[in-house]
Every structure is written in structure tokens, then in C-alpha cells.
Prior knowledge:
By secondary structure, this protein is mostly helical. It contains five helices and no strands. α1 packs antiparallel against α2, α2 packs antiparallel against α3 and α3 packs antiparallel against α4. The chain is elongated and about 45 Å long.
Amino acid sequence: MNYALSFKELETYKLAREISFEIFKFSKSFPSEEKYSLTDQIRRSSRSVGAQIAEGWGKRRYEKHFISKLTDADGEQLETQHWLEVAFECDYIKEEQFRHLTNKCELLGRMIQNMINKSSKFCKT
């Protein structure tokens, strides 16, 4: 494993940002009555994944804190999957878009879990 000098170099972080940007773009088309409910929720949870990864990076001096933040990131990506299901069920996104983003979220979850499993490699000081 190559050592990253910044959280911005982590493939996990890059994928989290990619997902949140895709969600931001398509959620612009949600009905106005969803502005303070679904739109806000799906944007917040998807953006929080990258933020939790970044915060975990800053706490990697303490392995348990690092794992805790990554666990939070995984929880946020799962919440994002929930909101994607809601958007699909409400016909706000097409099945192809739903499947595409769900697959990306599932990959992201596996990547986060891999970081947790190998936390000692990230937490070397």
C-alpha cells in the first residue's frame, strides 16, 4: 500500500466526493416540496461520508478514533442508500441511475470496511 500524505489522496475519499457530486446534480430536479426533506437529507448524508473520512484521517494517531470515524462514514453511506431508495420509489430518479449510485455506494462501503480492517496500516505514526 502506498502511503497517502493527505486524505484527499485516498481512493475512498475520492469516490465519496464523486458520489456526493452526482447526487447534488440529480437532486436539483427533485420537486420543490422535497427541498427541506429528501433533497436536504440525501445531500447531507452523501456529503458527510467524505467529511467523516477526512476527519478520521486527522484522528489516525488514535486507531480507535480512526475506526470510529470510518464507522460513521459507513453509516452515512448506508443512509445515503436509504434516501436513494426513497427517491427511486417516488419516481424522482430512474432505475438505471438508482442502480448506478447504489452500486457505487456498496463499493464505497466495501472500501471503508477494508480501511477499518487494515486500520493499523493507516495509523502508523
